Amino acid sequence: MKFIENMLESSNMNPTVVNVLSNVLMIVFIAIVAIIANFLTKKIVIKIISQIVRKNKFQWDDILFERKVFHRLSHFVPAIIIYSFAETFPAYEDWIQKGAVTYIIIISLLMMNNVFNAINDIYQTYDISKVRPIKGYLQVIEIVAVTLGIILIIANLIGKSPLLLLSGIGALSAVFMLVFKDSLLGLVAGIQLTSNDMVRVGDWIEMPKYGADGDIIDISLNTVKVQNWDKTIVTIPSYALISDSFKNWRGMQNSGGRRIKRSVFIDSSSISFCTAEMMEKFKYIHYLSDYIVERENEIAEYNRRNDVDRSNRVNGRALTNIGVFRAYIDNYLKHHPGINQDMTLMVRQLAPTEHGLPLEIYCFTNDIRWAVYESIQGDIFDHIFAVAPEFGLQIFQSPSGSDLRALIEETKKEEEMTRELGH
Predict the structure, then answer these.
(1) d(Cα 344, Cα 257) in Å, to the nearest integer?
(2) Which of 17, 158, 139 has the alpha carbon at shortest distance from 98?
(3) What are the extents of the domains in the chain?
(4) Distance between CA atoms of residues 292 and 289, nearest Å
(5) Is the Cα dihedral 352, 353, 356, 360 positive or negative?
(6) In angstroms, rounded to a whole number, what is the distance separating the alpha carbons of residues 215 and 218?
(7) By CB distance 3.0 to 4.6 Å, which of 168, 175, 249, 366 could disulfide with 340?
(8) SS (HEC) of 265-278
(9) Contact yes or no for 332/346 (Cβ under 8 A)
């Protein structure tokens, strides 16, 4: 500044003009120096760091570079230069230094945000990140750091000690509790969710209250994001997973089997005892031949031992078409390549209803993929519906409009035939 003033005074300028012009020139000089320093830092230093990062075998520094952590460092240089030249302007020295310090604090907070994002990205490269996510904890630390940064900025601008401001936070605790209610609830919920291993990224959950039915794609401090099967995304408050009930399908996914639990309704009027012709026919069914022979011998021995009169089919023991059908389905499932034979498998009758006798198939597929599961389930029930008539059984179906029309037409034909015979 002294050099510039001497140069201007030697040209016999007005002292006021010299003062103004020297200040302007000094500001321009400082701006040029700051811009050049920032440019050199970004183009040279950052380029050198980039080459070092790409050449080594570590992955964490690549993530730090992608998150532009090193790029934030270049912003410190202009602030330091401006702070150093503050004494050039004695009247404004204090405000210039405060502005530079405030800028440095803000850049530090922004850089800290990049660092936390990079830490989360690095952590997600490990498998444990799906079991123990840390994003919520990093967000809590970030909130605390931003709060402290704001206190430091205010303390710097008013020229007071930060400890003085910190001592007044106690009186504002109620306000902080109200403002950060969701964050505090989310923090507590996040700790409980993580410590109890209730949810992980990638888990399939169902929460009808919030319209959630899909995979968890993100767990943060305040929210859990679920991508539904229709590709919509539902955001659920973290504390809702603690206070409300939800279904986690992780157990099914880890078990290696997905449950089939569906009933076929048999028309009760089609249930009957097996005739000799039916028994002979059943012996040629691959999954029933051994069963029929074994059961025939067992029933014959029982009836002989108890001297049962078989002239009436009601007496003694006898096979029914529904019982043989149930045994057939059971053996069919035991030989099905898509059914997990190490898990529960049964075919059972439920209580009769107005729709007939429910015959429930309860088993597990050996593939948990949705499309494969539906394909296996569809194949099984296609076969059951197609094979039921071979056992003399009818699948119950409520009468439709076409059934009623056919019945009316048949009734009309019978009436016409009756009239014709009457004539």
Answers:
(1) 10
(2) 158
(3) 2-193, 197-255, 260-399
(4) 5
(5) negative
(6) 9
(7) 366
(8) EECHHHCCECCHHH
(9) no
Assigned CATH topology for domain 197-255: SH3 type barrels. (2.30.30)
Q: Where are the beta strands (DSSP E) in 314-356?
A: 346-349
Give SS3 for 404: helix
Instruction: From first to last of the 423 residues of the chain, give the pLDDT tens digit.
Output: 566 656 655 666 666 665 667 777 777 888 888 888 888 877 777 777 777 777 777 777 777 777 777 777 778 888 888 888 887 777 777 888 888 888 888 888 888 888 888 888 888 877 777 767 777 778 778 878 888 888 888 888 887 777 766 666 665 666 666 666 777 777 777 777 776 778 888 888 999 999 999 999 988 777 889 999 899 999 998 888 888 889 998 888 788 889 999 999 999 999 999 888 998 899 889 889 889 989 888 888 888 888 887 777 777 788 999 999 999 999 999 999 999 999 999 999 999 999 899 999 999 999 988 899 999 999 999 999 999 999 999 999 877 777 678 778 888 887 777 777 765
Taking residue 1's Cβ as centre, other Cβ atoms within 10 Å add up to 15
CA atoms of 244 and 232, how far apart (whole Å): 21
Q: Across the beta sheet with 258-266, what order do the strands follow?
A: 258-266, 357-365, 346-349
Long-range residue pairs from 409-414, CB within 8 A, at least 24 positions apart, any chain: none
Spatial separation of the C-alpha atoms in residues 8 and 22, rounded to whole Å: 8
159 torsion bin: left (phi>0), alpha (psi -120 to 50), beta (else): left
The structure tokens listed for 32 are 């040029």
**R_g (Cα) of the chain, nearest Å:** 41
Which pair of structure tokens corresponds to residue 322? 């529904």
Instruction: Give CA–CA dist 364/343, Å, rounded.
Output: 7
Structure tokens, 256 = 């290696």
What are the φ and ψ backbone dihedral angles of 372, each rounded to 5 degrees?
-65, -40
Query: Phi, psi at residue 178, to the nearest 5°?
Result: -75, -45
Beta-strand pair 346-349/357-365: antiparallel
Cβ(249)–Cβ(344) below 8 Å = no
Please give the single-letter amino acid code of residue 382. Answer: D
Structure tokens of 369? 């993929």
Q: For 376, phi and psi rounded to 5 degrees?
A: -65, -45
Q: Give pTM, 2 decimals.
A: 0.54
- For residue 180 the two structure tokens come to 């950060």
Cβ(75)–Cβ(105) below 8 Å: no
Among 107, 106, 36, which residue's Cα sits nearest to residue 72? Answer: 107
